[in-house]
Design goal:
Layout lengths: L7 E6 L11 E6 L3 H4 L9 E8 L8 E4 L9 E4 L4 E4 L3 E2 L5 E2 L2 H14 L4
Length: 119
């Protein structure tokens, strides 16, 4: 089983688009705590909480820009309001596309607080 870590961006198969949900194969940020990520091979429910990315750059209070780097081929935005949980079997490949920098993680955390009314 692959090992995922909070802050990594992976390619994920979201499947068929359903209404306003994201679909198709696209990058997504692993946002779930490593306390769970580290035991995925030991538990029955192998869900990982992620946030999809898009190349449709619109900016805004619930988007975080990530410039192309490593294996992330295009500038993309993390769509904070699209937080979801997917099974680990939807992850594609054996390694992440890239990993967020500290300032990017900070921005994601702040915008998650806004989205979830935690601040």
């Amino acid at each position: 089983m692959i090992k995922v870590k909070r802050g990594q961006i992976w390619l994920i198969n979201f499947g068929k688009k359903y209404h306003s949900e994201f679909g198709k194969v696209r990058p997504a940020l692993v946002i779930q705590t490593n306390l769970l990520n580290n035991i995925l091979d030991k538990i029955i429910f192998k869900g990982v909480t992620v946030i999809p990315l898009t190349t449709n750059l619109t900016g805004g209070d619930l988007r975080v820009l990530i410039e192309k780097r490593d294996k992330l081929e295009k500038d993309s935005e993390i769509c904070i309001n699209e937080l979801c949980t997917v099974d680990i079997s939807r992850f594609i490949g054996s390694e992440s596309l890239t990993e967020l920098k500290d300032d990017e993680i900070f921005e994601v955390n702040e915008k998650l607080k806004l989205h979830l009314s935690l601040s």
